[in-house]
Amino acid sequence: MHFRERTTSRRKGRQAQAAKRSSPPLSALISSVLLVVLLAASLPTGARAQAPLRLVNRNTTVGNISFKFAGSQTFTASQLKEQIALQGPTFWDAVRRIVPLAEARIYPFDPVILQKDVVRLRRFYARNGFPRADIGYPASQLDTSSNKVSVVFSIEEGPPLIIQDVGFFAPDSDYAVTQFSGKRRQQWIDFRNANIMQTGERFSEPAFIDLYNQVSNWLGNHGYAFHEINGDSTISEEALTADVRFTIDPGPLGRISQINVEGNERVSDEVIRRELPFEVGDRYRGNELSRAKQELFSLNLFRLAIVEVPSDQPRDSTVTINVRVQESEPRYVSAQTGFTRDDGVLLEGRWTHRNFFGGARNFTANATVQPGLGNRGDSELYAEEVYRRLRLSTALRQPHLFQRNLSGILSPYFIMEQTFVRNQKGNNTYPLTYEAGLNTTLLYKILPFRIVTLEHNFSRAATPERVPITRDLPGDVQTRQDLYNKSVFTLSATLGRVDDYLNPKRGFLVRPFAEASGQFLGSALNYYKVGGEGSYYQPVTPSVSVAAHVSGGRMVAIAGSRYNEEAAFNERGFVPDPDRRQLENRFDDIRFYAGGANDVRGWGPRLLGPKVAQADTVFEDPDPDDDMEAFEPVCADDGEDENENNDPDDCMRGNPVQFRNYRYERIGGLSKLAVNLEARLPFPFLGPNWGTAVFLDFGQVSEGSVLLSDFRYGTGAGLRYETPVGHVRLNLAYKINPTDEDLIDPQDAFNRNIGRDQGVERNFWRRFRLHFSIGQAF
Question: Does one domain contain both 136 and 184?
Fold first, then answer.
């Protein structure tokens, strides 16, 4: 591949002058610097607010760098800054100047580097189809009071270089299409007509190289292992035109005749060969070499995998493929810790064997501890449900289960957790809950990142401690042990097509799911649940994109566990029937919820939708030093409560009733619909890793159908920073139409529900919600 330039003799003189102007020798640059110094010495020394660059010295620094365009602008300032060596202060340097003990970075100014940057920019524009770009820095000024230079590059792009002709030819100068027959002939015509370089468009070297690679990939993917391509562009700077020509020799169609495996020590050749998407006798496909590397890396056995066609084999219809691997250590131990606002400190340890008893089986033993430290919950608005949690699990993954695309996972686990409410009154502890079970999963990979999953979970849950289930006096408390089985089948999939599955900007993804649990499966929970989510991504400009996300579903409880025939809570926040409360607890993790950093962002996690004000009830004489509210129910002789503001169960043996630990309990719903709309924008002056976003979210959960009139809306904006592990996001959201429960204290809501309304204060600041998270919202 090479470039050939054709010019007239009159243009050659100008071109020689331009070359001299754009590539000054070192001696000329040194002479220019000495001349600047001599001129500076001959001028008055009085300080000026703004002065020309001839007054710079060795202590001069860069104040800022900007670009001024005369006419059109094709490239952004951030793209141009990537081409130059001179650097100036960033947004974070401004932050460091105002942060105590933070030292701001100094950016020295060098006039020689400035001259070289002009040359770099001219070459950049020439490579991208602007051979007559005029670039200088006459508007740059020196602030003598601070001895800082404001560097301003003045750019006039000039007319672009236009593609006049694009041709594909055979070695005998005939058209390349004559070398193909059958369906490959039409496939080549379709590819040729859709190539990225079209007549009348601007020519650029990157686009030319990209087209060269596309032609090479097409030939390789259609069976031509030994193709040869010669790319040539003839450029006329006088006419500002470019003729692009590719000479193609596809060579013979190839079939795989031999596969060599090298570098493996503990992993057998058979395991490596079975993961390859080709075998001896198959037609050669170049894209399958890349897919083979992906399959080998997915085994988590190799730190290096190379699949290639050796260059020294004869150019005939037989193709030899070499597979070279370098194995990772078979065993490794990892530990990590983390922190979230809702769960507090998290500790995790893991031991993994990458090749358990051979066959590329992966065995993992995992322990997760959530001690309940550092949990802040949702301040005073929602109960601080701290989970003290221990989870022990193992997982055995078997790849290539009957075929390459099917794998299976067996994962037994044991969970022990304790929930309690913490507030200024102390701790209110609830019983330990145990769960032991087995997850069995089948995964079928359609394409990379597109998978169909069938999972079965069987577990047995138990609450073995004494649980008060009546409102009798202490000492007369009954107990029960809630033991039940769960057996749930889940079918899910990830489908769609995007440009980047880790950070998509164009395309769509759909993730449907369906769950079933019933007595015929040995489960105490009987329900059906369907739902899913879908995302759509569309770029508007190279730096601006929009995204939309929809999620929702519906759950139906069937006979045998239909806890929703009556409300789980009555209008005053009490559970009328302990059996119903027990079933309600069983379904807590199955119902739909809305709200959170990746949902309707005006609300906290699972906080949008139905919720009820709760309080702990105590039947004992109040402590005179305790500020808990108390009142004496008045009971008639027949046991009927004459105070209509109190629950009938509160009338027990004349004892006073006290309430404490006011909180909202999230109820969720049987159906859900949520929509997220987001515009993703650049952050000015901070580079390509920084971004901003504005969003509008709305949704609702319900016991029945979700109605548009019931939707709750939230809007806001946020910052994005792209890191190797994903986007770090900081969002500030605002509730547009919150409910009363979203704005008032749970104690006020509870008192209002039992008829003791002493005035309700709505807090405006509870309309706002701040989210900090890692990863894209969707």
Answer: no
Q: Is 131 in the same domain as 231?
A: no
With b for 16 or more beta-carbon neighbours within 10 A and e for fewer, the 417-426 pattern comes to ebbbbbeeee
Strands ordered across the beta sheet of 255-262: 255-262, 318-327, 302-308
- For residue 700, is it within any domain? no
Share of residues in the chain with pLDDT > 90 (%) = 44
- How do residues 592-632 score in pLDDT, each as one tens digit? 999 988 899 989 888 888 888 877 665 555 455 554 444 44
Pairing of strands 318-327, 255-262: parallel
CB 694 within 8 A of CB 673: no
Q: In terms of pTM, does the model score above 0.70? A: yes
Is 69 in the same domain as 137? yes
pLDDT of residue 674: 95
C-alpha–C-alpha distance, residues 84 and 66, integer Å: 12
Residue-level pLDDT at 616: 67
Does residue 468 sit within a domain?
no
pLDDT at 341: 65
What's 113's DSSP letter? H
User: Do 185 and 170 meet the contact criterion of CB atoms below 8 Å apart?
Assistant: no
Q: Examine the domain organization and report whether 151 and 16 are in the same domain.
A: yes
Cα–Cα–Cα angle for 755, 605, 409, rounded to 5 degrees: 130
490, 455 contact by CB (below 8 A): yes
CA distance 683 to 673: 31
Number of domains present in the structure of the chain: 3
DSSP string covering 310-375: -TTS-SSSEEEEEEEEEEPPSEEEEEEEEEETTTEEEEEEEEEETTTTSTT-EEEEEEEEE--TT-
How many beta carbons lie within 10 A of that of residue 376, not counting itself? Answer: 12
Looking at every residue in the chain, the average pLDDT score rounds to: 80
Question: Which one of 122, 156, 190 terminates a domain?
Answer: 156
Rounded to the nearest 10 degrees, how much is the dihedral formed by the CA atoms of 515, 521, 525, 529?
Answer: 10
The string of DSSP codes covering 467-506 is ---S-PPTTS-----EEEEEEEEEEEE-EEEES-SSS-SS
Q: How far is CA 289 from CA 220, 294, 296, 333, in A?
A: 10, 9, 11, 32
**Token couple for 82:** 């990537």
d(CA 358, CA 768): 54
Please name which of 750, 761, 460 lies closest in space to residue 613, comparing C-alpha atoms. 750
Give the pLDDT mean for 700-726.
88
Q: Domain limits at 231?
A: 162-249
Task: Quick: pLDDT tens for 243-252.
Answer: 999 999 999 9
pLDDT tens digit sequence for 134-148: 999 998 988 888 899
For the ranges 301-305, 364-368, 492-496, 649-653, which has the lowest average pLDDT?
Answer: 649-653
